[in-house]
Amino acid sequence: MSQPSPSVLQAWLGADCVCFDVDSTVCVDEGLDNLAEFCGVADKVKALTNKAMNGDMTFEESFEARLSMMGLTRQKLDQFVSQHPPKLTPNVVNLVQLLEQRNKRVYLITGGVSDLVKPVLTALTLPDNRLISNRLLFDENTGEFLGHDRSCFTCRSGGKATAVKHLRVDLGYRSVAMIGDGVTDMEARSECDLFVGFGGNVERAQVVAGADWFVRDFRELAKPLLERDANCNMP
User: Fold this and answer.
1) Coiled coil located at which positions (predicted)?
2) What is the pLDDT of residue 234?
3) For position 61, what pLDDT does the model report?
4) CATH topology for the 6-29+88-233 domain
5) Which residues of the chain carry a pLDDT beneath 50?
6) Helices then strands (H, E): number in the chain?
7) Which of 176, 203, 205 lies closest to 191, judged by CA?
């Protein structure tokens, strides 16, 4: 377990907005990889996911290639979602509750798709407006897959940084922390006060090296919050 510097700890405790990546961070697995397995193209899609997360391929190249392989329909996607509830990373629910109780607003920022991530919001008891994700487009009559909404922040490389900038400039948050496992999460560092690398599910060398603070268990992030409460309550 790495110990945060005093300045990093101050940034963590001072954040009024905390953003989480979803795949391999809030959840133990990758939603698009699971959907690909359901669609029978798991190996090909997983290889592209890893290329994007390791920085070997741009996110938009990986995202569009993965979607094109799956043969999606509205009906197939709905069937997958109904049969595959989210698998949350241990201790993440407690951390989100601690943050929300302290008026630190929690957002999920993901390159995944809204249909797969909305059940995660529900599991974390967060409202729908705390999700920034991608949106898939389907024909309303036939359910045929038409592509994805290219106006979404996270459909392109650097999109998470753009999403964080939106939170600061348009929604007025003063101090933002980002937590994630991948290089695409670390890209948001330019707009954040703090980037926390998370390695509880997947550990990536670039993220270990580039994070302001690297943790493998969400209890490491909960501990300073609880310790500050204890200090404040001392006579």
Assistant:
1) none
2) 53
3) 84
4) Rossmann fold (3.40.50)
5) none
6) 11, 8
7) 176
As beta bridge partners, residue 177 has 18, 194
Which own/partner contact pairs does 136-139 have at CB distance under 8 Å and 24+ positions apart? 136/67, 136/72, 136/77, 138/73, 138/74, 138/77, 139/74
Q: Which two tokens stand for residue 135?
A: 């949106």
CA 200/CA 140 separation, integer angstroms: 39
Q: Is 98 exposed, middle or buried (0-12, 13-18, 19+ CB in 10 A)?
A: middle
Using CA atoms, how far apart are residues 215 and 227, in angstroms rounded to an integer? Answer: 17
**Domain residue ranges of the chain, discontinuous segments joined by +:** 6-29+88-233, 33-83
DSSP state of 172: -
Residue 3, pLDDT score? 85
Candidates 17, 19, 32, 218; CA nearest to 117 is 32
pTM: 0.92
Dist CA 92 CA 165 (whole Å): 24
Listed as own residue / partner, the contacts of 59-64 with beta carbons closer than 8 Å and 24 or more positions apart are 59/111, 59/154, 59/155, 59/156, 59/157, 59/159, 59/184, 60/155, 60/156, 60/157, 63/111, 63/134, 63/148, 63/155, 64/148
- 97 membership: H or E segment, kind and range: helix 92-101
CB 184 within 8 A of CB 111: yes
Are 91 and 217 in contact, with CB atoms under 8 Å apart? yes
Query: Looking at the annotation, which residues are catalytic?
Result: 21, 23
Q: What pairs with residue 148 in β-bridges?
A: 136
